[in-house]
TrEMBL record:
<dbReference type="Pfam" id="PF00586">
    <property type="entry name" value="AIRS"/>
</dbReference>
<dbReference type="Pfam" id="PF02769">
    <property type="entry name" value="AIRS_C"/>
</dbReference>
<feature type="domain" description="PurM-like C-terminal">
    <location>
        <begin position="155"/>
        <end position="311"/>
    </location>
</feature>
<feature type="binding site">
    <location>
        <position position="330"/>
    </location>
    <ligand>
        <name>substrate</name>
    </ligand>
</feature>
<dbReference type="GO" id="GO:0009228">
    <property type="term" value="P:thiamine biosynthetic process"/>
</dbReference>
<protein>
    <recommendedName>
        <fullName>Thiamine-monophosphate kinase</fullName>
        <ecNumber>2.7.4.16</ecNumber>
    </recommendedName>
</protein>
<comment type="pathway">
    <text>Cofactor biosynthesis; thiamine diphosphate biosynthesis; thiamine diphosphate from thiamine phosphate: step 1/1.</text>
</comment>
<dbReference type="InterPro" id="IPR036921">
    <property type="entry name" value="PurM-like_N_sf"/>
</dbReference>
<dbReference type="GO" id="GO:0005524">
    <property type="term" value="F:ATP binding"/>
</dbReference>
<feature type="binding site">
    <location>
        <position position="151"/>
    </location>
    <ligand>
        <name>ATP</name>
    </ligand>
</feature>
<feature type="binding site">
    <location>
        <position position="77"/>
    </location>
    <ligand>
        <name>Mg(2+) 3</name>
    </ligand>
</feature>
<feature type="binding site">
    <location>
        <position position="125"/>
    </location>
    <ligand>
        <name>Mg(2+) 1</name>
    </ligand>
</feature>
<dbReference type="InterPro" id="IPR006283">
    <property type="entry name" value="ThiL-like"/>
</dbReference>
<keyword id="KW-0784">Thiamine biosynthesis</keyword>
<feature type="binding site">
    <location>
        <position position="221"/>
    </location>
    <ligand>
        <name>Mg(2+) 3</name>
    </ligand>
</feature>
<keyword id="KW-0479">Metal-binding</keyword>
<dbReference type="GO" id="GO:0009030">
    <property type="term" value="F:thiamine-phosphate kinase activity"/>
</dbReference>
């Protein structure tokens, strides 16, 4: 890409360049951005990256999808704190083989998600990388002082809930990756699964409802799989979590695709990841009120288990018996057999 770095930044970030107002006193285009938060609010900040070959391949995601999903994974982490996403800082590492036009489309994806969730890009960094495309976003948001929803807040006597179906993204990825060797045409309704993988949604409205209603306790977003995120809550809160297998919400399209490839759909639900639904806990006495509040806002809400006193861990209740649910999920430094690749 024989082009000038500064001209490229102008081209890719065009709509955000120099934008001020609405809490931003210095926007994109200076050494750093300057913004303020409203009285009574704190800043909530997170950072997630997407790397070619690890988070996407050219054949699984278009440039626009890459930008969009990188924003969603960050917006989802703000949602999981009960916060309001506000400002984004975007770092792109461009490797040989990626054209300026493709990078522009990555920024179009970023822009689409930003518009949908009311986020403003206020800066970033542009660098060359030797091997694969890197996209890293830092997202800044606001949350009512002292009220962020933590992973450590689950208590014995709570019920466990989910804001939507899980396993769809992993099924969509499986569909995309097995495209070449598949003998039969995929069913048209399975396209929903591909869309869940490429263009997930972040549950900001649900996170805000949980915080504002005062009914939500622990909260976490599902990036590495239901099992892994439930384990994080159990360990941070010092509680035993029991998940009822038959209550785990899964799309009908996901079940039918899993059946067609001889896969147990629960494996994708527990260990797939990238669903960006929220998993949390609510005091059992408040669960009905919370379910009604979700229904009133037209938001899905599924109860799927209990939080109990006991050794921190996650158990699966299936056909009347309980067994430990392995603490597995997507892990950057382990292979599929669970071996640590770094020794
Ligand atoms: N390289 C790092 N340097 C500093 N903090 C990190 C790093 N990687 C992760 N963290 C922090 O560790 C925590 C867990 O990160 P992660 O598992 O990626 O969360 P999530 O799955 O919600 O995105 C977060 O507080 C995150 O900010
Ligand atoms: C080509 C390809 N292979 C595998 C995956 C699956 N995958 C990659 S990263 C990941 C987990 C989420 O990423 P991570 O960086 O751990 O996000 P975080 O938990 O920090 O939000 C999953 C399920 C994918 N999306 N694309
Ligand atoms: Mg992360
Ligand atoms: Mg998270
Ligand atoms: Mg994350």
């Amino acid at each position: 890409m024989a082009r000038d770095e500064f001209a490229l930044i102008r081209e890719w970030t065009g709509r955000s360049y120099g934008l001020e107002g609405n809490g931003v006193s210095v926007g994109l285009g200076d050494d750093a951005a300057v913004f303020s938060v409203a009285a009574g609010m704190e800043v909530v900040a997170c950072c997630d990256a997407m790397i070619e070959t690890v988070h996407f391949l050219r054949e699984t995601m278009s440039p626009c999808d890459i930008g969009y999903k990188a924003m969603i994974s960050n917006i989802s982490d703000i949602a999981a704190m009960g916060g309001i996403p506000r400002y984004a800082l975007v770092t792109i590492g461009v490797s040989p083989g990626w054209q300026a036009d493709e990078c522009k489309r990555i920024y179009e994806g970023i822009d689409q998600a930003a518009k949908l969730y009311n986020v403003r890009m206020i800066g970033g960094d542009t660098v060359a990388t030797p091997d694969a495309l890197h996209l890293s976003i830092t997202l800044l948001g606001e949350v009512e002082s002292g009220r962020a929803l933590r992973r450590s807040s689950a208590r014995a006597g709570d019920l466990l809930f989910l804001t939507g179906p899980v396993g769809s993204s992993a099924a969509g990825l499986d569909l995309l990756l097995s495209r070449r060797e598949r003998a039969v045409e995929p069913r048209p309704d399975w396209q929903t699964l591909v869309a869940q993988h490429q263009r997930p949604t972040a549950q900001v409205e649900a996170g805000r409802l949980l915080l504002k209603s005062g009914l939500g306790r622990a909260l976490n977003d599902i990036s590495d799989g239901l099992a892994s995120e439930a384990w994080e809550i159990a360990e941070a809160s010092g509680c035993k979590i029991v998940i009822e297998a038959e209550r785990v919400p899964m799309l009908e399209e996901m079940r039918s695709y899993a059946a067609s490839v001889g896969k147990n759909p629960l494996d994708w639900a527990f260990y797939g990841g990238e669903d960006y639904q929220l998993i949390g806990s609510v005091p059992a006495t408040e669960a009905e009120t919370l379910a009604a509040a979700f229904a009133e806002h037209g938001l899905p809400f599924y109860l799927l288990g209990t939080v109990e006193a006991g050794q921190p861990g996650v158990w699966l209740s299936e056909q009347g018996s309980e067994r430990p649910l392995p603490k597995a999920g997507y892990n950057h430094f382990k292979d599929e057999a669970g071996e640590d690749q770094n020794g």
